[in-house]
C-alpha cells in the first residue's frame, strides 16, 4: 500500500481509539512512529487533524471531516481482509501432487513455496516419480503432465508450453543428419514418458511426430542431459534444460530449423463434481501464476 494511504489509516486508528498511546497498543507500533506519521500527514494536507496535549487528543473540525469520510472505507477493508484470512484458515488438508523432477525444479518449486505461505494449513505431498493415468485417482490428486493427454478420467487444462529440442554433445559430428529419418541411425536417449518431438513435414504438409526407438530409457531429464554430455548419444530435452549448455558450446541442437514446435504442459486433476477447496485453491493459484 502507498505510504500516504498508510498515514490515513493510522490517523483513523488514532481517532478511533482517542489517543496515540491507545492506537499504539492496538497496532503494536511505537508511539513515536505514530506521532511522526501523523505529523507528516498534517504537513502533506496543510491542515491540523488532531489537537494533541498531555491529557487528550481531540479531532479538529478538519480532522472530524476526514475521519467521517475515511473510517467507513477502512472499516470495510479491515472486514474484507479479516474474512479473507478466515477463508484461508478454513482451507486445510493434504494435496498429493505429481510432477517430473525437472518440471518441479523449473516451474513449480518457487510458486509452491508462495502457495504454502498463503495457505499454511495445506500440506503438499509431492512425488517426482513417473505417473500412469490410473494413479491420478488412486495415488495423486493433481499432476503436471506433458503432451497431449485426452482422457475421460480427468480434466487436463493447459498450463504452459515449452519448445522441445534434440541435442548432441558439442564435439559430436552430426553433419550427416539432414532429415528427421536420419536420426534413426543414431543412439537416442530419452525418458520413459518422453513426448516424441514434433516437426513439420513439407512433403506431407502436416505436423509429424518423430518415430524413434530409444537406445537408452532413463527416469529423469537430468539423466538424459548427463548422458548426452558424456557420450556420443543424441538426447531429447525441453529447450529450457539445454539452453545454458548450448550457449556454452557443451551441447548443440540437431536439426534446429526442423524441431521447433512447442510441447504443452497440462495441469491435470480428477473429474468430479465436488473438488475439495484445497485442490481448487491450488488449481486457481497455478493458473493465476501461469496466466
UniProtKB/TrEMBL annotation:
InterPro entries in the record: LysR-type_TF_proteobact-type (IPR058163), LysR_HTH_N (IPR000847), LysR_subst-bd (IPR005119), WH-like_DNA-bd_sf (IPR036388), WH_DNA-bd_sf (IPR036390)
Occurrences of domain HTH lysR-type (ranges): 11-60
Matching Pfam families: HTH_1 (PF00126), LysR_substrate (PF03466)
UniProt KW keywords: DNA-binding, Transcription, Transcription regulation
Domain of life: Bacteria
PANTHER family registered for this protein in UniProt: HTH-TYPE TRANSCRIPTIONAL ACTIVATOR TTDR-RELATED, HTH-TYPE TRANSCRIPTIONAL REGULATOR
Family in the record: Belongs to the LysR transcriptional regulatory family.
Descriptive protein name: LysR family transcriptional regulator
Source organism: Vibrio barjaei
Lineage of source species: Bacteria, Pseudomonadati, Pseudomonadota, Gammaproteobacteria, Vibrionales
